[in-house]
Design a protein that fits this description.
heterodimer; A: mainly beta; six-stranded antiparallel sheet; four-stranded antiparallel sheet; 12 strands; B: alpha+beta; 13% strand; globular
Chain lengths: 117, 423
């Protein structure tokens, strides 16, 4: 899916993911449902997800790509939180706007795979 | 007949939930309702003109195979073939025809989704592979009669507890003779606790020296991938005949109760479903801190991003960097290196510096020579919590900026660098 970077805002790195500012969410991106009250930006098998808590003015969209999704923050900033009680990545504040969720990857035996933090 | 070409918005919204519901039935640890399964099996045996079977339930496919071996059941291929031909296989083909006749091509793909990948490609494929490997492994000819006697003695009581009370006055034919002549006499009181734990503790891998692998099973819950597909198609308007609906209903009732099941004359041996199945975010079997597939009796398989690995690696005894680098199986070696951590692998391989950003968080680019694999470049960096990590990068990468870019979907390094402080 095509999108444009927004260089007027700063990227937000946390653990094995980045939030990259973009101009707008691609129109064809389907909306994603929250899971148990949170949008999971990066999934961890051990439950140590990087999440944004669900609220009406936060929306997540699928980029149909293992390594990418989109996030839309409206009205007021949100928080990017890491659900781990040790080696916790500090919470980042996400300003209002459209964001690309970019997960880290590395080459594996079967092509690119998610790089675990 | 006019084909259904597109889902209504509410149907489209329901589809992922519908699939997940069936996936959860197969993988979320539900237990068998004996009465419900017995009724379903009675129905399936009626389809092939057989009387209702007695049902025996064990906690894992491995325990089922062991029970089959001990009972020395007569060949089961014929019964499996009958059920396959008259019900499972026939139904599958008929339903496929109905779907193709009544649904547009795109919709067929959409409905199928990835349930097959997870339930059959991953779960069934990996389990079958492990059971076969374990059983046909190098120890297969190393067990003598003495150990077999010991094995029978140890498992006898457990089997007695589960089977004997139910069978006491009901056994017939060869099974009766086998139990009385060969098994009951050896029943002891030495076995307590879970069958599989005991066997693993006391006999370890040697149990697999017995040729107990038995391929005459039907898939049970691992058949839910196509059952869910057919049920959803039916829900949105695809018509089945009364006979097809009846057979589909039987298969669903079996699949929502047990995992693999072995149809024998007068008897069915059925396995419980796993109590835990763990996936990575690409829906590959993956357990970082334990078995990826775990049964109630302790049996299971360890997997790393879909690659089967030794159980010890994720249960407190990971390989050392040196062991990981020498591991024979190259796919497992790759998993071992990830488990150990590439930064530790790098340290034992005299890494050569290619580029240094001067910033620990942004990192440095190094190259190592991996045994059997040749040169490999890696980004060596520090994460926001102060821990060091290393990630593989393609060997064409020449700078840290390039490495960061390829690791993040080819986003230009200046976009990545224009950020707040990494946490």
């Amino acid at each position: 899916m095509k999108f444009e970077f927004d260089s007027t805002r700063k990227a937000i790195p946390q653990g094995d993911m980045y939030l990259i500012p973009i101009i707008a969410i691609p129109a064809e991106a389907p909306q994603v449902n929250a899971e148990k009250g949170a949008y999971i930006c990066t999934h961890s098998e051990t439950g140590h997800h990087h999440v944004v808590m669900e609220r009406p003015t936060v929306k997540m969209f699928s980029a149909m790509d293992t390594f990418r999704d989109f996030l839309l923050i409206e009205d007021e900033p949100a928080k990017l939180e890491h659900l781990r009680d040790h080696h916790t990545h500090e919470t980042q504040v996400i300003p209002v706007g459209a964001w690309l969720i970019q997960r880290q990857r590395q080459p594996g035996p079967e092509g690119w795979q998610r790089a675990a933090d | 007949m006019k084909k259904i070409e597109k889902l209504m918005p509410e149907q489209e919204a329901e589809l992922p939930l519908f699939r997940q519901r069936y996936l959860d039935i197969a993988c979320k640890g539900g237990r068998i309702d004996r009465d419900a399964l017995q009724v379903a099996l009675t129905d399936v045996y009626a389809v092939i003109g057989k009387p209702a079977p007695k049902l025996f339930i064990f906690d894992s496919p491995a325990a089922c195979m062991l029970a089959l071996k001990i009972f020395e059941m007569p060949p089961r291929g014929k019964l499996k073939d009958q059920i396959w031909d008259q019900l499972r296989g026939q139904l599958d083909g008929q339903i496929w025809d109905q779907l193709v006749d009544q649904l547009g091509d795109q919709l067929v793909d959409q409905l199928r989704g990835k349930l097959w990948d997870q339930l059959r490609g991953q779960l069934e494929g990996q389990l079958r592979g492990q059971l076969k490997d374990q059983i046909w492994g190098k120890l297969k000819d190393q067990i003598g009669n003495q150990l077999w006697d010991q094995l029978w003695g140890q498992i006898g009581n457990q089997l007695g507890g589960q089977l004997w009370d139910q069978l006491r006055d009901q056994l017939w034919g060869k099974l009766w003779d086998q139990l009385v002549d060969q098994l009951v006499d050896q029943l002891g009181d030495q076995l307590r606790g879970k069958l599989w734990d005991q066997l693993v503790d006391q006999l370890g891998d040697q149990i697999w020296g017995q040729k107990i692998y038995d391929p005459h099973y039907l898939w049970g819950s691992q058949d839910l991938y196509w059952i869910a597909w057919a049920k959803f198609a039916n829900k949105i308007g695809v018509n089945f005949t009364a006979d097809q609906s009846h057979k589909l209903d039987i298969m669903e009732r079996i699949g929502t109760q047990c995992e693999w099941w072995w149809p024998c004359e007068n008897i069915v041996i059925a396995s419980e479903r796993p109590i835990h199945v763990r996936w990575d975010d690409e829906r590959r079997l993956h357990g970082e801190n334990g078995l990826a597939v775990e049964y109630a009796d302790g049996y299971g398989l360890a997997a790393w991003h879909g690659q089967r690995i030794p159980e010890a690696w994720v249960t407190g005894n990971p390989p050392s960097a040196a062991e990981a680098l020498r591991w024979d199986n190259l796919d497992q070696r790759s998993a071992a290196c990830e488990i150990v951590g590439w930064h530790k692998i790098m340290d034992v391989l005299d890494a050569r510096l290619i580029d240094d950003s001067g910033d620990h968080a942004w990192g440095r680019l190094v190259e190592v020579d991996l045994p059997d694999n040749g040169p490999q470049r890696m980004l060596d960096a520090m994460c926001g919590t102060g821990r060091r990590f290393a990630l593989l990068v393609p060997n064409h990468v020449r700078t840290v900026d390039q490495a960061q870019s390829v690791l993040h979907g080819d986003i230009p390094a200046d976009i990545l660098r224009n950020g707040v402080v990494r946490t």
